[in-house]
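Write out structure tokens for Chromosome partitioning protein ParB.
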Amino acid sequence: MAGNNRGRPKSDDPKIKFDNVRLKTTTMFDIKMIAEELGINESVLVQTILENEMPKYKKLLGIEE
């Protein structure tokens, strides 16, 4: 893996598995139910949510790119 100009790792498959993330059962149920209704898998749904929410937190914390 080589770094790019933003200091982030670059790879052919830039996916990382969250092994130690724990969610409440009700949250997991909601993720599964919504993903099924949208016709996508749970991973894609969570990735989309994170990508849409992350800029808000970065701005709030003053760590915008």
